[in-house]
Amino acid sequence: MDKEERENEYRVTTLTDRLYFNRKIPLSREYNIEAKASRFPTLYLTSKEVADSAIGQFEIYTTPIQMATVVASVYDNKIVFPTLIKGEEPIEVKYKFLNSLDNLKYLQRAMYLVTSSSEGTARKSFC
Asked: Cβ contacts of residue 103 below 8 Å, gap of 6+?
């Protein structure tokens, strides 16, 4: 299955490609610093593996920088990589995180509720 066929069948891979999974994250242009690549599976045997990957239950390997990029992207609806060098501008990728504002608002609300709702699975971590 080539990249286009994979993206048509499994839309989550489009998002992971945009978020720089499976490639190094640029942190500084001036000093040529990159974060190690996080890994999101690119070959699947079943649809269940795709679903499990999307919620972090399959073979996902991420770095803290990668997860900070994901959370910031959901917040701002744009891909911006953090910078570790004082005074250097963050590196921004030229496309939006999600093309559908309805989906973005739904995801933002879900991230809020998981930490704030009395039934949120991450709420206990912040109490």
From this structure: none
The tens digit of pLDDT for each residue in 30-68 reads 888 899 999 988 776 677 887 788 777 888 899 988 988
- Give the helix/strand (H/E) hosting 80: strand 80-81
Q: What is the pLDDT of residue 113?
A: 86
Q: What CA–CA distances, in Å, run from 102 to 38, 41, 59, 99?
A: 28, 27, 29, 9
The burial of 96, by beta-carbon neighbours within 10 Å (0-12 exposed, 13-18 middle, 19 or more buried), is given as middle
Q: What are phi and psi of 61, to 5 degrees?
A: -130, 115
What is the tens place of the pLDDT at every residue in 95-120? Answer: 677 777 877 888 888 888 888 888 87
Phi, psi (5° rounding) for residue 39? -120, 130
Nearest to 24 by CA among 54, 69, 88: 69
d(CA 24, CA 125): 30
- Per the confidence metrics, is the pTM higher than 0.85? no
